[in-house]
């Protein structure tokens, strides 16, 4: 938690760099806000500060209807304290407790459900299920504010299977009826358009340049101020276009999806793909102490891919060839094996489609085609496909491939690509700087070196 004086100054200045790091609760109104709330700031003696929204809610405060705390960026400062807790939060936000039990989630994490409950009690003061219900309610609040979806569809998209259960939970967690929020919805929100905030600065020009060099036509699209792509999420299919609004420190995301029940997980993955929850100011302050001679690009973000499987395929196809040649191979793969989505769009190929093809259309050595097919077969049959370390048992896959896939496919913030030639040369030029000292932000150091 930041010290009280820092929080006081941040809320008075409405500094967007602190958005999501803490929440301001007003004792007289029973409402909690983001530091960027446009309302008249309350007197300091009438304010309490909380690190997370769920802590403010447990203390009896309800979310503000003006600044909408449901839209605040996440805070790596509290998400990354414990690796197990961070993974539990990610799985819960993807719907693990909507589709399964606490015991099943604990098994996936490799811990007991008692220990998982203890982690949540220690960090948030609530049980995992209570945390999950509050996150579902906040997501529902975001949909009620920003879209014109019927309330029944909002309930379904937020992970509730009963409108009665949704209404009861929403009233209990938010302090209002869902219908009461409808008058605050945007008048032009007939489409499914969500606003996803970030902390400034955001180096959009660098991210745009990175994505442009690797763009796969039909699967992705890119303009001066937007990026979009097709996707699959479990059994759902869809596409999105994220338009940058730098004056408001956010992206406005237009979404189309054929199954609203997975919407919360999809939106969370878009946030990860664009690295919207990074606190680049804190990261760059740390990197400055490690490599003081390195001119840092302010607001540099990790350029994510949609999932780990796609990142692995692209990494395999990019082994020991130029960026242009790798892009051409990925384009051929998508054109040949990607399922169509509408008239002019294609999805990234599935493990099944790659495993079932001889890949003869890919103009590369036979050994690499065998590696790609073997990788797809393993991914198709594996019970733990998210464990990229297991790829090292496959012929033709080494450390660089695994690390690159983790950097982009799950946005791991602490990947050091020691085998990358550009990274090696740039690091050698810095003299005595040690990559180990850059932990836990070595992925950002890698990206900064690529950007020189």
TrEMBL record:
Annotated source species = Modicisalibacter ilicicola DSM 19980
Keywords (A to Z) from UniProt: Activator, DNA damage, DNA repair, DNA-binding, Metal-binding, Methyltransferase, Transcription, Transcription regulation, Transferase, Zinc
Q: Name one GO biological process term.
A: methylation
The superkingdom listed in its UniProt entry is Bacteria
The answer to whether the entry has keyword Methyltransferase is yes
Q: Which residues form the HTH araC/xylS-type domain?
A: 86-184
| Essential cofactor(s) | Zn(2+)
Instruction: Specify the protein name.
Output: DNA-3-methyladenine glycosylase II
């Amino acid at each position: 938690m930041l010290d009280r004086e820092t929080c006081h100054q941040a809320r008075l200045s409405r500094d967007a760099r602190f958005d999501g790091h803490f929440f301001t609760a007003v004792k007289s109104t029973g409402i909690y806000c983001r530091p960027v709330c446009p309302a008249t700031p309350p007197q300091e003696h009438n304010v309490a500060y909380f690190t997370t929204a769920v802590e403010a809610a447990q203390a009896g405060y309800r979310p503000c209807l003006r600044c909408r705390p449901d839209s605040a960026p996440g805070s790596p400062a509290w998400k990354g304290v414990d690796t197990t807790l961070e993974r539990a939060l990610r799985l819960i936000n993807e719907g693990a407790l909507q589709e399964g039990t606490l015991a099943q989630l604990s098994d996936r994490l490799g811990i007991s459900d008692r220990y998982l409950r203890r982690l949540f009690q220690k960090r948030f003061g609530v049980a995992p299920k209570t945390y999950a219900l509050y996150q579902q309610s906040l997501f529902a609040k975001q949909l009620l504010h920003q879209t014109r979806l019927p309330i029944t569809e909002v309930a379904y998209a937020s992970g509730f299977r009963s409108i009665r259960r949704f209404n009861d939970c929403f009233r209990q967690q938010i302090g209002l009826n869902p219908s009461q929020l409808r008058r605050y919805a945007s008048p032009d929100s007939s489409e499914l358009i969500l606003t996803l905030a970030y902390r400034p600065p955001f180096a959009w020009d660098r991210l745009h340049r990175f994505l442009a060099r690797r763009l796969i036509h039909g699967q992705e699209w890119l303009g001066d101020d937007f990026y979009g792509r097709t996707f699959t999420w479990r059994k759902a299919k869809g596409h999105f276009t994220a338009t940058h609004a730098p004056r408001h420190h956010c992206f406005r995301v237009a979404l189309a999806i054929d199954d609203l029940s997975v919407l919360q997980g999809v939106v969370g993955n878009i946030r990860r793909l664009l690295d919207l929850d990074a606190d680049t100011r804190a990261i760059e302050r740390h990197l400055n102490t490690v490599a003081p001679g390195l001119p840092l690009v302010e607001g540099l973000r990790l350029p994510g891919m949609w999932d780990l499987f796609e990142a692995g395929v692209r990494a395999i196809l990019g082994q020991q060839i130029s960026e242009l040649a790798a892009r051409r191979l990925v384009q051929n793969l998508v054109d040949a094996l990607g399922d169509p989505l509408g008239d002019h769009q294609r999805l990234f190929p599935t493990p099944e489609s790659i495993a079932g093809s001889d890949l003869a259309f890919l103009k590369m050595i036979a050994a690499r085609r065998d590696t790609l097919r073997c990788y797809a077969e393993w991914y198709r049959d594996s019970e733990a496909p998210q464990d990229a370390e297991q790829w090292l048992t496959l012929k033709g896959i080494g450390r660089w491939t695994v690390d690159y896939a983790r950097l982009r496919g799950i946005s791991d913030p602490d990947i050091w690509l020691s085998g990358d030639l550009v990274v090696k040369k740039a690091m050698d030029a810095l003299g005595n700087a040690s990559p180990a000292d850059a932990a836990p932000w070595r992925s950002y150091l890698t990206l900064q070196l690529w950007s020189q």
